[in-house]
Structures are given as C-alpha cells and as structure tokens.
Amino acid sequence: MIETAVARAQVVRWPGVAGGLWLVRGTETIDTPDDPVLRLAARPGRGCRVVVLDMARVRALSVHAAGGLLSCARRLADRGCPLFLLSPPPETRRTVQRADRAGVLRIRPSLRAVVAECTPRRPVPEATTGPDARGTACEEERLRTELRDLRRQLRSQAAIAQALGLIRGRYGVPDERTAFALLRESSQRHNVKLRMLAAALTTAPAPREAAGEWFPDRIRRPAPPLPFATGSGPAGPNRTRVIEALLDRALDIGRADMGDVQLADPVTEELWMEAHRGHTQTFLNFFDRTGRDGSACALALRQGVPVTVLDVATDVQCPPESRAALLASGSRACHSTPVPAPDGTVLGTVSVHYRRPGTLLDHARVQALDELGRQAGAWLDWHRSTVVVDALEDLHTHARQA
Asked: If phi over 0 gives left and psi between -120 and 50 gives alpha, with beta otherwise, what is residue 264?
C-alpha cells in the first residue's frame, strides 16, 4: 500500500470498466493545501480513472486545506478524472460545503455508491470463461499438471546449472558433481532452498579475489518480530513456516477460504506460487508463475499498492486466460496485498479470494492485511540478507577449500 504519514491508497477495479478506482484513506487531520493526503489523491495510480477520498476519519479540515481539496478536484477534472468524497463527519462536511460554493466536490455515503454511479448502466455480459471454467477432462488436467511440474523443474534446473558453472569457474572445482555437492550441502546446513541459493549466488556481487570472507563488512541484524507466526519451536521459524503462517493469517483477516502467497523471483521478477489454499489444479497450473499481466497480483507487485477486483467475470483488465483460471477455481472477487521490504521493494503478494462477486473489504481489514504484509516483508528481507548470505558465505568457505 502506498502511504505517507497520514494517508494510504489502494486500487479497486470494478465490473465492466477499464482502468480502476484510486482510493485514498485519510486520517484525522488535513491542515494544509499541500497535505500528504491531497498530494496522494492528486497522483492516482496508473490507469485509475476515478479518485475517491475516504474522509470518514477526518475530524479536522482547515479552511486552507479545503481550498487545496477544491483545487485538487479541479485539476483532476481537467484530466477527466472525477474526485468523490466519502462520508465526511458533520463538521468536516460543513467546511467542505463552505469552500465549495459551486458544488464541484461530490460527496457520497459509501464506496459502493461511487461504484454504482461509475458503472455503466447497460448490462455488461460476463466474459467467456472458456473450457477450463466449465471443467476440463481428467486427462487434459493431468497433462496440464505434468506440464506445470516440468516447467518448474526446468526453471530450477536452469538456475542451478548456471550456479554450478559459476562455482566451477570461480573456485576451480574440477567437475559438476563436486560443485553440486558444495551447493547442496550449504543449502542443507542453512535450511535454504537449493534454487534460492543458486539464484542468490548468480545475482550477488563476486567476492574479492584475495578475501577470506565474501561479506566481511556486513552487519548481522536480529530477526524482526513475527506476531502472526507463533509456535515455531526453539530454533525459530523457517521460511516455509513463515509463508504458510502468512497465508493462514491473511485468510483469517479476510474471512476467506481461498488464498495464495506468491513471491518474486530475483532473476526473472516473475511471481512464483509459494503457498495456496482452496484453489483448483487449473488455477495452480496457470498461476504457478505470473508475469506482468493484468492480474490483481501482478498489478499489486508492479505498483506496490493493494488491488481489489470486485467481479472477476466482468473485469476487463484481467486477461482472458487469467479470468478462466480464476473462475475455474471459484474465485469471483479477490484482494491482493503487496509484501514489501523495509526499503519499499515489493517481494511478493498475498491474495485472498471470494466466491461471491462484489466482496469489498472494509478499511480495518485492508489495514490489517497491509500490516501483515509489512511484517512478512521485513522478515523475508532479513532472511534474504542474513540467512541466505550465511549460506553463501558457507559455500564460499567450503568451495575455496575444495
């Protein structure tokens, strides 16, 4: 979620309309014309055609800030982007109305009212879902599953093969078998997946030639707290348990029975499926690897903001193949939350799915999922910069002695 000291934003995609809705949530006070809330509202995310400022929590709006709000609305209108205000408290509403004698600002009681107003009145036919959504033959599904597993194996093998070549060239290891043994043993000693270690090896800067240690100046940080991953045992949580706990907590917050966690590959920047609940094999086959398409998870990764799709069947931004896989899994609405590192780099997404179209999470749940994503992102970033680096250092030490 994009945020400032006092404002947060998300993208909401509603039925049958290209683009999206840029929803900005303010906090208690807006006191200057260039307040962060107004600056965020004035810069809608890419493709968003409507801006909504949720003012339900704005208890104090200065006269100067009201003028800034009016200027913001006019600038957006000049770009063909209407601004709606949601549910301002009585005193805030009076301040807005005193500043807006011409009636430029549109005040609405709820986000659903805005969506209804902006949705075309003509019926929008549901997109063709294709044969996958109607159920595929068992043999076809089996072949799809085998293809998915084969693709994953080939991608992993390519990354590992590149790492083995690097080990042999850098350390003078005589053969591929010895290089693989070194990589595998460091992976096992530090409980890091083989492919993850291989990717880290090929993307990390090369060690200095005469260096005894690969990373001599690094500062080890303690693991950040993980309130959602309890009961991990005396050794602490490992990456797999953290990802599973992240998904379980997201499903609990979102009151959903379908969901998934996808993390970005450091080499290709594609999203890889890491954990899932309730999805069909068709869904898993398709979303095993997600590129830069129009799906909610890909957009959340790209823009770093939560993305809500109110109706998958009529979401015109969703590619037909993605829509078919979602509908086959029973997903009619979804909410994808970015998982950011402390420096803002988005490491992946956690998504919850719903069988009923029009499902819209309230502010408290969106905020809770946002905080959950930040907690998980901080830990995953620590794991990447500490545990994975420990494994690289271990590999460096043993390869130099081989």
From this structure: beta
> Would you mind telling me the total number of residues written for the chain in this entry?
402
Q: Does domain 2-118 have CATH number 3.30.750.24?
A: yes
Report the pLDDT value the prediction gives residue 288, as an integer from 0 to 100. 82
Task: Please give the Cα distance from 337 to 299 (Å, whole number).
Answer: 10
Within its chain, how far is the Cα of 301 from the centroid? Answer: 5
Whether 46 has a pLDDT exceeding 80, the answer reads: yes
Residue 176 burial (CB count, 10 A): 13
pLDDT at 140: 55
Are 398 and 182 spatial neighbours (Cβ–Cβ below 8 Å)? yes
Residue-level pLDDT at 119 = 76
Locate 51 and state its tokens: 């801006």
- Residue 25: strand pairing partners: 8, 54
Arithmetic mean of pLDDT, 196-215: 86
Strand positions, DSSP E, 66-163: 83-86, 106-108
Please give the CATH topology (third level) of the domain spanning 153-402.
Beta-Lactamase (3.30.450)
Domain boundary assignment for the chain: 2-118, 153-402
Per-residue pLDDT at 137 exceeds 50 = no
